C-alpha cells in the first residue's frame, strides 16, 4: 500500500515515538492498519522510544562546535549522568553538534540529514532512544557567525573535547590581532561560566526583570520604615549593587578578583567589544523528579514495562 497519508504517519508516530520513515514503512507493511503497524514497530524494537520519551531527561551534555564561519552550542539531555559519560551518547552529541554549524535554529537542526544514517536529526534521536535505552532530548541550540568577528568558548566540567556541563560562547569584535582577542575572550567566557550575568550592559537588562527587582527593593526598603525620600536614595545604591552582580560589564573580573570587566576589555592595544554571549548550563530550568521509588524504577526496567 503506497498511498499512506501524512496524517496517518503522524498519528502512528505520536502513538509510538518511532521515526517518520519507520512509521511510513510500518503502515505500508500493514496496509495502513494502525494497531498492526504498532505491533510491527514493537517487534522491530522501534516503539520502545515511546515509553521512554515521557521520562524526565535533565542530565546529558553541552556541546560546542566550531568552523571558520560559525560556532554553535547545543544541549542534549539524557536521564542519567551514567549514560552521558557513555561513548555512544557522547558521539550523538558530537554528531548533532557538527550539524548545528549548518543550522539557523533548533527546528532547522532537527531537519538536518545525518549522512551515515540517511535520516534526519529528529529521527536519529528517536533511533538512539531505542538503542541507548533512555530518553534523549535535543533541547536547545545557539549559533554565532564569526566571519567578521571572533568567537571564544569555554567548557566547564569537560568530559571530552567540546563536551561538558556548562558551555559559554562569546562573540567579540576588535582591531587587535586574532590570538590576543581569542585569548581574552576565553577568559571572559570562563568569567561568564562562573557568574552567569543577565546581560552585557545595563541597557540590556529585560525591562520586566528590572521592574521586578526594583519592586522587591522598594518593598524591602519600606519595611525598614524609612521616609520615601530616603527610600529613593537607598534604591539607587541597591540597584547599583544589583548591576555589579548581574551585568557583565559591571562585574568584577573573576580571573584577577579586582578589575572591572569593562576595564579588562580595554586592556589590549585596541578596545574589545562584546557583541553577544550565550551560556548553557546542563539541565537549568528542567523540573527534576523527586521522591522517585528507585526499586520500582529498576523493577520496571527489568520487566520491560
In words, what does this structure look like?
The structure is a single chain. This protein has 305 residues and is an alpha+beta fold. Among the domains are: 6-52, Ubiquitin-associated (UBA) domain (Helicase, Ruva Protein, domain 3), CATH 1.10.8; 59-198 and 275-285, Elongation factor Ts, dimerisation domain (Tetrahydropterin Synthase, Chain A, 2-Layer Sandwich). Helix content is 46%, strand content 19%. It contains 13 helices and nine strands. It has helices at residues 6-16, 20-29, 34-43, 48-52, 81-84, 87-100, 106-110, 121-132, 178-195, 207-223, 228-246, 261-264, 294-303, and strands at 59-66, 70-78, 113-114, 119-120, 137-145, 150-156, 163-164, 166-174, 272-281. The strands form three sheets. A four-stranded antiparallel sheet has the order 5-2-1-7. Strands 6-8-9 form a three-stranded antiparallel sheet. A two-stranded antiparallel sheet has the order 3-4. The model is unreliable at 290-305 (pLDDT under 50).
β-strand percent reads: 15-25%
What structural class do the secondary elements suggest?
A: alpha+beta
Question: What's the CATH class label of the domain at 59-198 and 275-285?
Answer: Alpha Beta
What is the H-and-E element order? HHHHEEHHHEEHEEEEHHHHEH
Low-confidence stretches: 290-305
Q: Give the proportion of residues in helices.
A: 40-55%
In the CATH hierarchy, what is the architecture of the domain at 59-198 and 275-285 at level 2?
2-Layer Sandwich
Rg is 24 Å
State the shape.
Answer: elongated
Fourth-tier CATH superfamily name of the domain at 59-198 and 275-285: Elongation factor Ts, dimerisation domain
Helical segment tally? Answer: 13
- Overall pLDDT: 87
Q: Using DSSP, what is the number of strands?
A: 9
The strands making up the biggest β-sheet line up spatially as: 5-2-1-7
Main β-sheet description: 4 strands, antiparallel
Distance between the termini: 32 Å
- What do we call the CATH topology of the domain at 59-198 and 275-285? Tetrahydropterin Synthase, Chain A
Amino acid at each position: 500500500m503506497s498511498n499512506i497519508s501524512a496524517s496517518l504517519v503522524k498519528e502512528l508516530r505520536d502513538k509510538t515515538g518511532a521515526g517518520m520513515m519507520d512509521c511510513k514503512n510500518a503502515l505500508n507493511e500493514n496496509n495502513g492498519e494502525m494497531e498492526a503497524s504498532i505491533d510491527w514497530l514493537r517487534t522491530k524494537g522501534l516503539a520502545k522510544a515511546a515509553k521512554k520519551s515521557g521520562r524526565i531527561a535533565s542530565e546529558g551534555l553541552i556541546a560546542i562546535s566550531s568552523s571558520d564561519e560559525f560556532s554553535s552550542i547545543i544541549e542534549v539531555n539524557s536521564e542519567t549522568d551514567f549514560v552521558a559519560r557513555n561513548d555512544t551518547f557522547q558521539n550523538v552529541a558530537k554528531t548533532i553538534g557538527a550539524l548545528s554549524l549548518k543550522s539557523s535554529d533548533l527546528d532547522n537542526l532537527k531537519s538536518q540529514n545525518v549522512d551515515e544514517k540517511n535520516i534526519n536529526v529528529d529521527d536519529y534521536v528517536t533511533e538512539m532512544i531505542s538503542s541507548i535505552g533512555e530518553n534523549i532530548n535535543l533541547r536547545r541550540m545557539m549559533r554565532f557567525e564569526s566571519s567578521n568577528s571572533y568567537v571564544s568558548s569555554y567548557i566547564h566540567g569537560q568530559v571530552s573535547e567540546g563536551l561538558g556541563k556548562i558551555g559559554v560562547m562569546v562573540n567579540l569584535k576588535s582591531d587587535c590581532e586574532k590570538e590576543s582577542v581569542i585569548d581574552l575572550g576565553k577568559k571572559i567566557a570562563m568569567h561568564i561560566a562562573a557568574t552567569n550575568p543577565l546581560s552585557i550592559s545595563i541597557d540590556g537588562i529585560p525591562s520586566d526583570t528590572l521592574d521586578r527587582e526594583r519592586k522587591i527593593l522598594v518593598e524591602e526598603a519600606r519595611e525598614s520604615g524609612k521616609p520615601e525620600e530616603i527610600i529613593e536614595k537607598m534604591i539607587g545604591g541597591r540597584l547599583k549593587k544589583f548591576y555589579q552582580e548581574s551585568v557583565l560589564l559591571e562585574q568584577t573580573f573573576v580571573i584577577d578578583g579586582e578589575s572591572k570587566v569593562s576595564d579588562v576589555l580595554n586592556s589590549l592595544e585596541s578596545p574589545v567589544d562584546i557583541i553577544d554571549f550565550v551560556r548553557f548550563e546542563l539541565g537549568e530550568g528542567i523540573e527534576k523528579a523527586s521522591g522517585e521509588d528507585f526499586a520500582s524504577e529498576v523493577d520496571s526496567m527489568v520487566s520491560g514495562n
